[in-house]
Amino acid sequence: MNGWARYLPILDWGRRYGRETLSSDLLAAVIVTIMLVPQSLAYAMLAGLPPEVGLYASILPLVAYAIFGTSRTLAVGPVAVVSLMTASAIGEVAAQGTTDYLTAAVILALLSGGMLVLMGLFRLGFVANFLSHPVISGFITAAGLLIAAGQLRHVLGVNEGSGHLHEILGGLAGSMGAVNPFTLAIGGGVLAFLYFARIWLKPMLRAIGLGPRLADSFTKAGPVFAVAATIWIVSSLDLGAEGVSLVGAIPSGLPPIGLPSIDLEVVRVLIVPAFLISLVGFVESVSVAQTLASKRRQRIQPDQELIGLGAANIASGISAGYPVTGGFARSVVNFDAGAQTPAAGVFTAIGIALATLFLTPWLANLPQATLAATIIVAVLSLVDLKAIGRVWRYSKVDFSAMAVTIAGTLFMGVETGIVLGVVLSLLLHLYRSSRPHVAVVGQVQGTEHFRNIDRHAVETRPDLVTIRIDESLYFANSRFLEDKVAALVAERPEVRHVVLMCSAINAIDASALASLEEINHRLSDAGIKLHLSEVKGPVMDRLQRTDFLDHLSGRVFLSQYEAFCEAANGCTEDSGSVR
Amino acid sequence: MNGWARYLPILDWGRRYGRETLSSDLLAAVIVTIMLVPQSLAYAMLAGLPPEVGLYASILPLVAYAIFGTSRTLAVGPVAVVSLMTASAIGEVAAQGTTDYLTAAVILALLSGGMLVLMGLFRLGFVANFLSHPVISGFITAAGLLIAAGQLRHVLGVNEGSGHLHEILGGLAGSMGAVNPFTLAIGGGVLAFLYFARIWLKPMLRAIGLGPRLADSFTKAGPVFAVAATIWIVSSLDLGAEGVSLVGAIPSGLPPIGLPSIDLEVVRVLIVPAFLISLVGFVESVSVAQTLASKRRQRIQPDQELIGLGAANIASGISAGYPVTGGFARSVVNFDAGAQTPAAGVFTAIGIALATLFLTPWLANLPQATLAATIIVAVLSLVDLKAIGRVWRYSKVDFSAMAVTIAGTLFMGVETGIVLGVVLSLLLHLYRSSRPHVAVVGQVQGTEHFRNIDRHAVETRPDLVTIRIDESLYFANSRFLEDKVAALVAERPEVRHVVLMCSAINAIDASALASLEEINHRLSDAGIKLHLSEVKGPVMDRLQRTDFLDHLSGRVFLSQYEAFCEAANGCTEDSGSVR
């Protein structure tokens, strides 16, 4: 793909679009639409936004992604974790229920969209690597727990119980006297039904003869049944009068298109949250897209994905929505339902648009407890406690980054949690790579091989010490090498030659070059010559652009064997060594 | 060294202290004291502090370092770059000349000391690796230029010309009409004399028969001559009345010992600057100490150095001083003058204490222009413009971090400059290591060797692709591997086996493990088996603690040759491969 098609994947697949693909995409779109309506309402509630904002965020963003995205089957829209992060971010600048709160959500989507597009254009997708796997997986688990706990107040029908985990638990504990029995009956009933659907319904449907696909679709439509049933119950019994919180009147009609007036102070406060939302959303979305694409041996292009998700967020911003990204559950449904191209996303958008036009009057009597229950069931599948144990067993270092992320997210806030995790994993990485594996080596008798003197019976010479460095040299580990050489020389007073065996060094950055110069200089002051052996071609090319080799007190040997034999023997220039 | 001696190096060298060492140390102390008196006054002025604070910072800190430090010859005290950083930091919380400003300096020293000691106790010296060589060397050069420019106003006798570089230049340009000719004569004269001393005096003294050591000592005593001469001139001609700014009355007497009342808000603002001062001071000091130690084949212990410098700063804080660190010029003088042990530092401290008791009355008529001129000459030796060119030629990536540090320091402030440099070098490092070298390899005909298919004529099989990864796998590069494998498989529809050749992989962190699981899972979905070959022992041990090998769709082969021959041939279990 070249030219325009590089940045507009639609030009590639759109050209070859046919009737057969159309019918597959249409079917998938119908199924995803049915799933997405209750999800959109629920995640908007989670973000503290009115329900229609969730629907708005499920229309234009899908169209934008279809144009710019590279995954054939990714379904974008509001997702749980990003909704939680949105609530946390815009809660800093405005109070829920105000116009400023809505405007802040729009600004957040625009900021995040702009950042993603810029990162895509400048190919900065690698920045997402800052989020190591233990950090992202710990964060998602903690966010899932936090969201589920935060929804309990809606299931119980009480007012207290939001914020950090300890605040939620404290609030709930203090409100136990105020539980609304009708709300609890609805919320608890929906929870029980959804768990039943998840665990028992599918095998039962299979047992009575349904195919696996159909059984799965029925199961995934559970929330839709719950929504319909609880609306009917509430309307029939007039439970709104009994204090059951309802979604209330939703304005029907398509989203308004336009930009709000933008307050720069709000932008300043939202920049960091927008960046974190962009990273988390991108990592999650790319991982889903990658997984689905490889099932059909398709490819996604991560840098173009940034542009696709950025475009989706900008589209969300100009249509009164809030930050969106690719969702796992809905993308799997889209894929399983047979979606072939991003056109399925466009058809889904049309479906949601029709829902905002014609379905909204029916939703006024929807209990918030129903939405809360669907959220709880959805997010608890994000909680992966086993992963914590796996990481603990695999690596204590990785575990500590994960533990800090989880504790930070639960008790100090989503942004704090993720930032702490990232900073700690960077520090730990730097710590690990600041101590590269370094071995003093000697000659395996009768061979030209050299091995670690601590592990093998090898020959050494009193006047010469050879140090093999098993990693590329760069700023994080170059000072360690200085210390190491200084220590080795200090404990071997008879040494006159130090050989650095460079067979595993793929690169030497400017910091490491400075360290090598320092080492050479210091050894020289102590009457010791520094030699290099087995320097790789590209590394040697680069060293030759400096005056390091002119100042080097010793020589550069092609092989360690040569260095071992000749370094201390008068160092004649005709012995095949290179300067 | 074990037990107490590990944390109190004085127990080691103090025990063997003899008469001969004593006389060497005493001589060095006299010479360093003479050098340190004008430096202490000058750097205090640079930090915006009264001159006696510079003297106070040259007494107790030296004693503390002598007890806890590991370098035999490092001379600690106020230094130029740290003084500039101090002025910048405490200028944020109080105005020069107020008691709050003095208190802030003390708090900064205590904070920095506390951080250094903690870093030492927890062996966190590796954190200093964050400061890559291009960043620290760019920062020192920029700080040198900034300090020199900032002192010009004292040489010219004008009031404007402080702040960032553009503010300094603007201020000076606007004050050209207000230049004080007497001040300029003194300042210009001292500058000329010091440059003369540096460039001409030493060769001249050598020519008239002085030994190199003695000639050098005379040259380095230049500032002392300048101080004495200008005091005499100012006193004789009563130039104070002509508007020449003088140091003024310095309270004589030893520093007061005690702690100020500490305002937590001030502490909050100073935490980041204190951390940066600690890092910069530590890096500079360790580098000097390391260089001097290796000349005598001695060792320093970087983690204990943190404790030594931390103790020096705490001592400075409780004796009304300000942040200190090991200085380059004075340590070299101390070394060259023959100092044998840290006792030389204690004797120097006694010398400075005597100076504060008896010399201060003589210093009231010292012109600030003299001190400014000594600062300018001293800091311009820090400016290393050639290093910029060297880094540019060696690596554009390293150069960009250096350029950002220099520009940030000059035009946005010392803290901003260093933070920008550190963040950029981390980003660039992450970028570089996010793209490890990966090669598709094939068999060199008739051998068991495998080489890059792009560089060698090798044999491959259509149903099998082997990927050799030339670096350890961790969070920064694990997603790259996912993308790479996905791309290779997508463009080779006939592939049924993927072999990852792991001969260069020294470690796999939890993120990379998750990526390998993802890759295995995705390939499996596409009907492709994943195999590993040449996995190193420690890596294999760690993998065996997970269930990755149970889920692996293919096998683990000891050699790449085996993998190439057998991976696609039915995969019998009795062929020497390990699961």
Record keyword descriptors for this entry.
homodimer, 579 residues, mainly alpha, Transcription Regulator spoIIAA, 6-stranded mixed β-sheet, two-stranded antiparallel ribbon, elongated, disordered C terminus
How would you explain this protein's 3D organization?
2 copies of one chain form a homodimer. Chain A has about 575 residues and is mainly alpha-helical. Chain A folds into 2 domains: about 5-425, no CATH class; about 440-565, STAS domain (Transcription Regulator spoIIAA, 2-Layer Sandwich), CATH 3.30.750.24. Chain A is built from 25 helices and 8 strands. A 6-stranded mixed beta sheet of chain A has the order 4-3-5-6-7-8. In chain A, helix 8 (about 135-155) runs parallel beside helix 19 and helix 18 runs antiparallel to helix 19. Chain A is elongated.
Going by helix content, strand content and strand pairing, the class of chain A is mainly alpha
Oligomer kind: homodimer
* Relative strand content of chain A: 5-15%
Rounded radius of gyration of chain A (Å): 31 Å
Shape of chain A: elongated
Largest sheet of chain A: 6 strands, mixed
Spatial separation of the terminal alpha carbons of chain A: 47 Å
Overall mean pLDDT score of chain A?
Answer: 89
Helical residue percent band of chain A: 55-70%
